[in-house]
Design goal:
CATH superfamily: STAS domain
Strand order of the largest sheet: 1-2-3-4-5
Largest sheet: 5 strands, mixed
Number of domains: 1
CATH topology: Transcription Regulator spoIIAA
Helix content: 25-40%
CATH class: Alpha Beta
Distance between the termini: 23 Å
Length: 101
C-alpha cells in the first residue's frame, strides 16, 4: 500500500492505492495531515483511480478528512472513482458530502 501527497498550484492531491481499508489508516492520516497543512486554493482531492476495493473503514477515513477540512474552510473532492468503488460511494450517499468526479 502506498499513499502519496502531491501539491500542485495550491491543490493537495492524496493518491491512494489498492486496497483502501483499515490497515492503512495511519498512513492515510499522515497524508491527510500533510494535505491539510497545504496553503492554497482550499481544495483537497483524493485520487481513487488505483482503488478497486474499499471497506467501511475507508469511508470513515474520508468522513474524518472532510470534517477536518471543513473546519479549516477547505473542501474535499473524490477523483477517478469507478466501478465498485463508485457504487460503494453512491450507496453511502457520499455524493451529498463530496464532489465525486
Amino acid at each position: 500500500m502506498s499513499i502519496t501527497v502531491n501539491v500542485h498550484d495550491g491543490q493537495a492531491r492524496i493518491s491512494v492505492s489498492d486496497p483502501f481499508s483499515f490497515p492503512v489508516h495511519r498512513e492515510f492520516r499522515k497524508a491527510c495531515d500533510a494535505a491539510l497543512e497545504t496553503q492554497g486554493n482550499g481544495e483537497i482531492v483524493v485520487d481513487l483511480g488505483a482503488v478497486r476495493y474499499m471497506d467501511s473503514a475507508a469511508l470513515g477515513m474520508l468522513l474524518v478528512l472532510r470534517e477536518r477540512a471543513v473546519a479549516q474552510g477547505k473542501s474535499v473532492a473524490l477523483d477517478h472513482a469507478t466501478g465498485t468503488v463508485r457504487q460503494v460511494l453512491e450507496i453511502a450517499n457520499f455524493q451529498k458530502l463530496f464532489e465525486i468526479r
